[in-house]
Fold:
Amino acid sequence: MFMRIEKTKLILLTAMLVVACNQVTTETHTDHAVMQEEVKSTDLMLTESQIMLANIKTRKVSYQSVADSKVINARIVTNTELSSVVSSRVAGRVERLFIKETGRTIKAGEPLYEIYSEGLLTLQQEYLLAREQSVQLGSTNAQYKSFEESARKKLLLYGLTQKQIDQLANTGNVNPRITFVAPVSGIVQTIAIAEGQNIAEGSNLYTLVNLDKLWVEADLYADEINLVKAGDEINIQFAGQPAVKTIVDFISPEFKAGSQVWVLRATIPNTGNLQPGMFTQVLVTQTAGRGLALPVQAVIRSEQGTHVYVETDKNVFQPRMIKTGIESSTTVQVTDGLTEGEAVVVSGAYLLYSEYILKHGVNPAHQH
Structure:
């Protein structure tokens, strides 16, 4: 009798346990289904294998320095501060040109042209007369010494060299044809005279340029003028050569004639193979201070807006609309939509974008 009662109790307990387990299992499946339904409504839930295959990686949003880099087309021009115009100091006839071709490099003191000038003949004669009077009467009257010195300075002002004047003093013979030399070193850019030509005082004869230092000029439009100012450091980029760092010397305060642009100018040393007229690029970097920033590849752009994917729970990703500020080739500033410390997908974001459209049939931007 006792054994029957115990057996009956055991059967009842087993039946109750089975019912309880079935109830727990049913509730668990129901809760999981509800959770899946909630995730499907707004977010994406991926398995571990999907995350590995898509190479999904996240990074916490943090504050960092953000800079904006912009490439502006530019050109190399002659540094006019180092250019010289050789003009005639006397009227006369050009008897000979020693330099007849442009592009030639010359040194200071090298002969340029030979000229016949009646004015120079008169000045030479005046100097010899003053010198003779100084030699004969200078010991008794110092005024004659000053006459000689004055006549000598006049010849210097008219372009004769010290060597030519000393030769005139030593020989006592005037020279009807005087050779004029280059006042500075440089490259002959233009030649405005020919042999046998009569020239007036002040006529432009040669233009000499020094290419040791050149100017880089770039045109800035209205949306670029605030990126840079005089004194800022910029990089000049040449094809196949390392970038050159320099300082902005000047930005024109008004529009360039005929177009609505400002002109930026900077000075660069000539590496030996740069020529005026060559094209180059100016890389301008603007720092916006510290702010929330993300790698460029984390941001999804579309016609409806810009969004990223935030990991809200383990393997659960939510599309989030954001607003961006300045950006460089690697970093984007986030001005709204994220807070510091949130985990944002920085690798595989476009795969999540495709998966979202596949599952929900709509662009994430349309959900906001």
User: Anything to note?
Assistant: The longest helix spans residues 2-42. The helical segments are 2-42, 48-54, 118-137, 143-157, 162-171, 349-360. The chain is about 30% helix and 40% strand. The domain at 84-209 is CATH 2.40.50.100 (OB fold (Dihydrolipoamide Acetyltransferase, E2P)).
